[in-house]
Amino acid sequence: MKIQPYLFFNGTCEAAFRFYEKALGGKIGELHRFKDMPPQEGSGSDGCGGMSPEALAAMGEKVMHVNLAVGDQMIMGSDNPDDSKNGIQGVTITLGFTDVEEGRKVFEALSKNGDVQMPYGETFWANGFAMFKDQFGVPWMINAGDKPSP
Prior knowledge:
Number of strands: 8
CATH architecture of the largest domain: 2-Layer Sandwich
Shape: elongated
Helix content: 10-25%
């Protein structure tokens, strides 16, 4: 089993995932837009999953679904203004590294133009740790070089 985060954005999904692709060294595998979504019978009076034709047209170029593979892990996302109007809350994506410098490089890349709550540095449990929100408002933690428990 794998746990795969699914992130919702208010119109910035593609920009965020292009940024993550570069910052994390991943590869976007799928990117589907709302305009390409085929009608789905029985899913609402409009046949488009409950979206009115007007709403679907307004979302046309926005991302319906994207996935980004990073090694054997994956994160996915979508533009969905209803689910993201208050930003991503109640969850933080945590990245773990054995190599402290690799953790630092990823922190520097992901936190660019973001809001750093705790800069990358040593803690009592790790040789490298940071907490921040990226430029898209997604909260992250980097944990690198775990220290043994006393």
